[in-house]
Amino acid sequence: MTLSSLTKSEAAIRSDLLEVQRYDIAVDMTGLLEGERFASVSTIAFTCSDPGATTFVDVAMDVRRATLNGEEVDVSQAADGRLPLPPLAADNVLVVEADTTNTGRGEGILRTVDPTDKLVYVWTSLEPDEARRVWACFDQPDLKAPHRFVVTAPSSWVVTSNGAPESVTDAETQDARVWTFPDTPRLSTYVVVVNAGPFHEVRRRHDGYDLGFYCRQSLVPVLERDLDEMVTLTRQGLAFFGEKFGYPFPQERYDQVFVPNLGGAMENWGCVTYGDGQLFRTPPTHAQRAVRAEFIFHEMAHMWFGDLVTMQWWDDLWLNEAFASWAANWGMAGASEFTEQWATFLAVSKRTAYEMDMSPARHPIRSDVPDVSAAMSNFDAITYVKGQSVLHQLVAFIGEDAFVEGLRDYFSRYAFTNTRLDDLMDCYSRSSGRDLSAWTKAWLDEAGTDVISLVDDELVVQTTDDQEPRPHRLDIAVFDTTGDDLVPVGRSSHEVGGRRTPVDLPAGDLRLVNAGDFTFAAVKPDPVSLTRMLERVQQLEDPLDRALVAATAGQLLLLGDVAPRDVSAALNRALSSETSPALIEPFLSQALQVADRWAPASESPDLLRGLADAAVRLVGLPDARQAALRTLAASASTDAHWTALEAAAEDATDLDLAWRMAVRRSELGDYDEDRVARLLESDPDPDAGMRRLAVLAANPSVEAKEEVWRAFFVDYAVPASRETLVLGSTFWRPGQAELLAPFAHRYLEELHTLKGGLLNQGLTIRAMYPLGAGDARFLAAAEAAADDPSLMAYARNQLRSNSFVLGRILQARQL
Predict the structure, then answer these.
(1) Can you list the alpha helix ranges (DSSP code H) found in 668-701?
(2) Taking the chain, what is the end-to-end CA distance rounded to the nearest angstrom?
(3) Which family, according to UniProt (predicted)?
(4) Other Cβ atoms within 10 Å of 276 Cβ, number
(5) Using CA atoms, how far apart are residues 15 and 51, in angstroms rounded to an integer?
(6) Which residue intervals of 205-316 are DSSP H helices?
(7) H or E element: which one contains 44?
(8) Given 97, 130, 267, 299, which residue is catalytic?
(9) Which residues, including other chains, have CB under 8 Å from residue 46's CB and lie 6 or more apart?
(10) Coil, strand, or helix at residue 429?
């Protein structure tokens, strides 16, 4: 079915014309137990400000019958996801009966069969305009209304929606139960939900909230293992945000549902869904726990920013996601055990935004969005990571107290309504007493990354495309390195305006610009500071300062100002004495990328060997052991490395390390089919087949690569999760460039035929770009493909961004 994409002008016309009073939606899921049929009857009560006018309702299903005010509607006119309506009355009731069998592609709805026990699970995920795929509605964010769901599902299933069910009764005519849910608050169509299946359910009551956690039956031991931690994080987040926002979450029920094959998470009101890759099959490392905590806090922040108060149109989608991402880090640092989360954010996430914002894929944070499909093309690192970095800069610019006061004003003024960016910025202007119009334009309407240098006693700002510099509030830390110890001699704050800003600093030969990481800018250190920071990073006391050095080194790789070998050496020095769990794994990961992906083929083996040596030294530290062993398994190069791994694998209570060792052996040409079969047979993970695919992906043979390729692009058998990205990087081994060259060009062809929902397509596009393995010929082809209008806009943007990084990798190998 070809679907029309709602335009901004169409949405504005319909919003002026209609006001939706309520949705009453009856859902029949009984056809999904053994088949693919999903059916709904949507009853919409709405008013029309211009009786006699016409409009359309969104419904991307097979429409069986429709009535408007009791009169039949000609459903043969339904096309492109729209059903035209006859002239409207002042008060209207529209009833649309529809069904669909499009339940296997993740487009609004996904039916999944667990491979271990054959149990069926179903989820819905409706952003941005996919509610129309499961029931008729006016599918745009500014037509909010209460939703009431009555769901008929197989009797063995549990159903979750946006609140607690009012009743669950046996169906009269079949082996099913009827779940009746109360009215939701006034919500946009994209944040309501119905999930169903034989879920395992756990409930906890704390602090006046009824907290629910759900997973498929095959993952019960994993959920139970980490349940206490997730309960604690949920309690901490609800308490922190409720107090800081001056508006406690106004519903007793708060559910979190872990579902198969969802690439990310979705902020449904009171019923968040996560891809169950967040239920780590192996006891998670600190970094994995931090990622899951960030998901929990991010989706929870959306309850206020996105659900309670919703942007009027998708041109402010960035603000939804940027705010939730910023609030997640803020909340974790302020309310959870992850007190050094800002250092982790700098070391792990910020690089992705710099890569895209320095590339030809850069775009303003805020841009015109003519239709819904254009909104999703910018669902990227600039939206999430640069956006939250800019909000972090705003906090520094006006002060946290004013920022929080502005938020409280915003939520109290606009609860359960729709807003634009100007509404939020007006609240901040009132709370801070500052005119923020110039700040807003400079940060949100201009693309690209400012590059800041400290030249003599001036901060010098270089801009993209010769635009005016943005205002920056930043700190500079100065250290004396003349002795054996690193001695801090001053830390000062500066508000940077224009191309040159004089600064008064104490004497010192290591000067860290953007200490504390308050702004979003690349930093070019002076030559002496660069040498000192790379040589003595391990002596910096503040984790944020150590993260800043690692992040600056990554920026300088992109700018072509430092060689991979020098960055690798600095990271190994940092790892020699790193004690912060917030940084150990990020530094190991960055060091592995530099040695494996950025270094020239002549140097990569030695850099990997050096990293493996560093990992061996970390294995004895409890907080570092698991992450160090994983890095060692990816870089093992000597008999001593393998001896250390085999000893650890014998003591391990799970198979994770054994799988990782099998991947490395396979990469080195030692693929043992019997070993893989034994691992697969003994692994209880329902997705263990993906671990076998990873072993194949690493193997330098055409046959192995072809099998992985089919799983991605023919069978669509790779579950969507963060592990999808890992599988992609395992496939594209830089040392196998000649073998992989034909696959690289096939990747460009596959982009024309991708299937599934946006989140799943986006994961495949990013995972299977041959970063590190592509050559100059592929790079030229990818850059040309980025201008192909027949490709979806999201794919073109990802091609531009990744091609920029690949080009810089190829250049860095020449340094």
Answers:
(1) 673-682, 689-698
(2) 51
(3) Belongs to the peptidase M1 family.
(4) 27
(5) 14
(6) 220-244, 286-304
(7) strand 38-48
(8) 299
(9) 18, 19, 20, 21, 92, 94, 138, 145
(10) helix
Judged by DSSP in three states, 202 sits in strand
The whole-angstrom separation of Cα 670 and Cα 662 is 8
Q: Average pLDDT by consecutive 10-residue portion of the chain (815 residues)?
A: 92 98 98 98 98 98 98 98 98 98 95 96 96 98 98 98 98 95 98 98 97 98 98 98 98 98 94 96 95 98 98 92 97 98 96 94 91 84 94 98 98 97 97 96 95 94 91 97 95 94 95 97 96 97 97 94 97 94 97 96 96 95 94 97 95 90 96 95 93 97 97 88 88 94 96 80 91 95 95 91 96 95
Give CA–CA dist 294/317, Å, rounded. 19
Q: How many other β-carbons are positioned within 10 Å of the β-carbon of residue 703?
A: 8
What is d(CA 213, CA 237) in angstroms, rounded to the nearest whole number? 15
Q: Which residues pair with 214 in a beta bridge?
A: 201, 257
Could you count the other beta carbons within 10 Å of the beta carbon of residue 600? 17
What pairing do the DSSP bridges indicate for beta strands 310-311 and 418-419?
parallel
Helices (H), 417-481: 421-432, 437-444
Angle (nearest 5°) at CA 434 between 431 and 439:
115
Q: Helix (H, G, I), strand (E, B), or coil: what is residue 120?
A: strand
Decide if 150 contacts 139 (C-beta within 8 A): no
**Over the range 723-759, which residues count as b (16 or more CB within 10 Å of their CB) and which as e?**
bbeebbbbbbbbbbbebbbebbbebbebbeebebbbb
Amino acid at site 500: R
**Helices (runs of H) and strands (runs of E) counted in the chain:** 28, 28
DSSP of 50-63, one letter per residue? STT---EEE--SEE
Chain center to CA of 685: 24
Dmax over CA atoms of the chain, in Å, equals 88
| Chain-centre distance for alpha carbon 274 | 11
* pLDDT, tens digit (0-9, with 9 covering 90-100), for 282-315: 999 999 999 999 999 999 999 999 999 999 999 9
d(CA 437, CA 420): 14
- Cα Rg of the chain (Å, integer): 27
224 part of the active site = no
What token pair was written down for 81?
Answer: 């996801």
Rounded to 10 deg, the angle between the 793-812 and 350-357 helix axes is 100
Contact criterion met (CB below 8 Å) for 230 and 280? no
User: Are the beta carbons of 247 and 407 closer than 8 angstroms?
Assistant: no
Note whether 40 and 135 are within 8 A (CB).
yes
Sign for the CA dihedral angle at 408, 412, 417, 418 comes to negative
The token pair at 314 is: 């998708």
Residue with tokens 């850069």: 362
Contact 354, 555 (CB under 8 A): yes
CB burial string 790-802: b at 16+ within 10 A, e below: ebbebbbbbbbbb
- Record the tokens describing residue 50, joined without a space: 């211009």
- 228, with CB counted inside 10 A (0-12, 13-18, 19+), is exposed
- Other Cβ atoms within 10 Å of 437 Cβ, number: 12
User: Torsion angle, CA of 742/743/744/748, rounded to 10 degrees?
Assistant: 110
Question: pLDDT tens, 702-759?
Answer: 999 999 999 999 988 888 777 888 999 999 999 999 999 999 999 999 999 988 766 6
Q: Which residue has the tokens 């010769």?
A: 466
Residue type, position 496, single letter: V
Question: How many Cβ atoms are within 10 Å of 493's Cβ, its own excluded?
Answer: 12
Write the single-letter amino acid at 610.
Answer: G
SS3 of 70, please? Answer: coil
Report field, pTM of the whole predicted structure over 0.85? yes
State the pairing for strand pair 271-275/253-259. Answer: parallel
Q: Kindly report the number of other CB atoms within 10 A of residue 433's CB atom.
A: 8
Nearest to 551 by CA among 505, 510, 516, 601: 516
